[in-house]
Specification:
Strand content: under 5%
Structural class: mainly alpha
Number of strands: 0
Oligomer: single chain
Shape: globular
Order of helices and strands: HHHHHHHHHHHHHHHHHHHHHH
């Protein structure tokens, strides 16, 4: 039974992960486009700093506008005696109303908001991003519905459709449009080469709007309206999750939001652009943890009454740590190749990549640890942990950014997530103990860190020889996994054999 559950989780994670991995990989193609071409023409890394800054605001606002309703929907849809359709309709319409109100307020107060955010010259950037984040919030519960119904294929299809539309339009705007402007000026009179950063946001708006039409079957299910009594219960459950989400997302974007205020002017934008570009490389870890979250959240809530659930959570935690550390080593070992994703002006910041990746691993572990308070409806604990972690991050940023620049941002995230992880573990073991395999976790972390420092202190002039040595070090970690986790290897081999038979 447990093997079937793990197999189901692995299958769902693979589908969600495939869409996430392919999407992130294809988005990586936009990073060199922006860092080599767009930003060079628009003023260097400072231009990419604007993109980094506005998307940081978007991530923060998305958490505010969804206010924890994704998790809340899963919680209520799996409760006995609750109609899942009413839970979906109530949560989705509540988020939709808040998102619509947000867009109206931004439109009414656009000028003062743009002035405060230092975008007085381009207030349309702020308005476009407001509409985008409102649509994303509305779609978030629609995507959650797909996850609840185990429609991973449709989920992946819509995610990939957005990516392909986005990339296709970017390639048209930044490769074909300039030439067409010269050859067909009457047809391309709307195109301005100096407005390249603005086109990034416009393309995002168009693609996000088009994806909404893919949810027509789910939108029809909103006819159940809002159940007021259920909404009151949902809001009571979700407001700590909002605080939790705010603190969590601030751990990811507070540095990018605050940077322009701490280091004002073009130099601040330049440093932020460098940091933002390097973080893109580290985001492979965020991609893995996000794919895992998409599959694991409905998995846990759906099986919360299973008496073996604690053992299952402990086993999944161990496998999560193993897999993410393997991914961490793969990225740092092949950094001599991955560095070419970004332009040469940005590579001075590559040293922050391992720090940011380790912070993302801490975040993933913290997510795994978070289910004890979610399943027991004690979500206030999550808000407390995340608030403390966020305070640590902000303190490090405001104290040290002036001295160490974006390095302080990276270490701030590391310390913030590390604090959340440690607090959640110790309190959770008192409130709802789970038999985590701490010994294995420490062993794998120690080996991964040791291999990282070994490769960091090996200096070879040849890139090819460096990659050979680094590959050997990566294989050491992989061989150790195979030697120590024979049950995991056997399960993977069995899963592959079953797939090949079908």
């Amino acid at each position: 039974m447990a093997e079937n559950k793990l197999g189901s989780l692995a299958k769902q994670t693979a589908i969600y992960g495939l869409s996430s991995i392919i999407g992130r990989f294809l988005n990586y193609l936009l990073v060199p486009l922006y860092t080599f071409k767009i930003c060079a023409e628009a003023g260097g890394p400072a231009a990419y700093g604007i993109v980094t800054n506005l998307y940081a605001y978007t991530a923060l606002l998305l958490v505010i506008l969804t206010f924890g309703m994704e998790t809340t929907f899963f919680r209520f849809a799996n409760k006995e005696g609750v109609d899942p359709n009413k839970a979906f309709s109530t949560s989705n319409l509540a988020v939709g109303f808040v998102a619509l109100l947000f867009v109206i307020l931004v439109s009414v107060f656009l000028k003062p908001i743009s002035n405060v955010l230092n975008y007085a010259d381009h207030p349309e950037f702020v308005e476009i991003m407001a509409i985008i984040v409102a649509l994303d919030a509305f779609q978030a519960i629609l995507f959650a519905r797909l996850r609840y119904e185990n429609k991973a294929v449709k989920f992946a299809r819509l995610k990939l459709l957005f990516i392909f539309l986005n990339i296709g339009m970017n390639l048209f705007i930044f490769f074909l449009a300039p030439g067409l402007k010269e050859s067909h000026p009457a047809l391309m009179g709307w195109y301005e080469n100096s407005y390249q950063v603005g086109y990034i946001f416009i393309i995002n708006l168009i693609c996000t709007s088009l994806i909404t039409f893919g949810f027509i079957p789910e939108i029809k299910k909103l006819r159940f309206g809002i159940d007021r009594d259920m909404l009151k219960q949902m809001l009571k459950y979700t407001w700590p999750l909002l605080l939790l989400g705010l603190a969590g997302i601030l751990n990811q974007v507070a540095d990018k939001i605050c940077y322009r205020f701490i280091v004002p002017g073009e130099e601040g934008d330049r440093q932020l652009g460098i940091y933002g570009a390097c973080v893109k490389i580290a985001m492979i870890m965020a991609m893995i943890t996000q794919a895992f979250r998409y599959a694991y959240e409905p998995f846990v809530f759906g099986g919360q009454r299973d008496k073996n659930d604690k053992q299952m959570q402990a086993k999944v935690m161990k496998y999560f740590i193993i897999f993410t550390l393997l991914a961490f080593l793969a990225v740092v070992m092949y950094m001599p190749v991955l560095q070419y994703i970004i332009g040469p002006e940005y590579r001075e910041g590559l040293g922050v990549v391992p720090i940011v990746m380790m912070a993302e691993i801490f975040m993933g572990i913290y997510f795994n640890l978070s289910f004890w308070y979610k399943l027991t409806d004690q979500t206030l604990w999550g808000a407390i942990f995340s608030a403390i972690g966020c305070a640590v991050l902000l303190a490090i940023n405001f104290i040290f950014v002036h001295i160490y620049g974006y390095w302080a941002c990276a270490w701030g995230g590391f310390a913030g997530y590390g604090t959340c992880m440690v607090l959640s573990y110790f309190v959770g073991q008192k409130k709802a103990p789970i038999p985590y395999d701490l010994k294995s976790a420490f062993v794998y972390f120690a080996l991964a860190v040791a291999l990282f420092f070994i490769q960091k202190n090996i200096h070879i002039d040849s890139t090819v020889l460096t990659l050979v040595v680094n590959t050997a070090l990566l294989l050491v970690f992989f061989a150790f996994i195979c030697w120590r986790e024979k049950d995991l290897v056997a399960a993977v081999i069995g899963l592959v054999k079953r797939k090949s038979l079908h």
